């Protein structure tokens, strides 16, 4: 059973059709890499999945349950969207950490806010906060940041900040972890450090969608590669199929342009 299914997703901004008819599914433990030129709709797709944009048509299912259906307003109630967002963790190109909080506080913040809404919060406050603390420390240690818990973002390198952002996205245990060009804002040496932790997550079978221009990384780490162009999925398949033996002319052109750069 797929964790995520996206069906016939369409999204326009005024007269500009940015996503035309996007459909794919993601199995538990699978890593998908999405590649494609700038402007092909990759960010918009991730933003739709995270309810930062509202698709005009189509459906999004998690574990076979419809969480969004453009034709059904009952699936779009504001009051439930915040909860539905928790299915996804999103790591952006820019790290977006809170500068006034330490590393540990940045990772715990969302979980602590959510915990306050639990009916048993008052009664079990101490235990709940201890659990959140333990989980945040665990996620930060997975990111190799045990020694930086009390640092502030400005005291960290870009690579370290991005690893905090990944720990923060993991802290709410999302069904799907999404990355939007997670290394585009980093120097090459820091890029390697962030790609290594994402690779380790893939090896632990974390379910992930990674928008990336790092072709070697996509080839080595992804179970499946999706090539998007002009708001459609032109081709999808194993890294070997899409990156080394593409069937579609548009994929071949993209890859040859890419290797020239
Ligand atoms: P990618 O991430 O593949 O580079 P995007 O999803 O960011 O592509 O953008 C796809 C197209 O949608 C671009 O032409 C972009 O200018 C347009 N677009 C994205 N967001 C908006 C918006 N909020 N309003 C209008 N146009 C947008
Ligand atoms: Mg983008």
- Could you give a short account of the major beta sheet? 6 strands, mixed
The set of bound ligands, ions and cofactors reads: adenosine-5'-diphosphate, magnesium ion
Uncertain spans: none
Global morphology = globular
DSSP helical segment count:
9
Q: Share of helix among residues? A: 40-55%
By secondary-structure content and strand pairing, the structural class works out as alpha/beta
List the strand order in the largest sheet. Answer: 6-7-8-3-9-10
Q: From the alpha carbons, calculate the radius of gyration and give it in angstroms.
A: 19 Å
Q: What portion of residues belong to β-strands?
A: 15-25%
Distance between the termini: 39 Å
| Mean residue pLDDT | 96
Query: How are helices and strands ordered from N to C?
Result: EEEHEEHEHHHEHEHEEHH
- Find the count of extended strands (DSSP E, 2+ residues): 10
Word description of this protein:
It is a single chain. The chain is α/β, with parallel strands linked by helices. The chain has 9 helices and 10 strands. The strands form 2 sheets. The chain has a 6-stranded mixed sheet, sandwiched between helices. Helix 6 (188-203) links the parallel strand 7 (176-180) and strand 8. It binds adenosine-5'-diphosphate (ADP) and magnesium ion. Adenosine-5'-diphosphate binds next to strand 2 and helix 1. Residues 13, 16, 18, 36, 38-44 line the site of adenosine-5'-diphosphate.
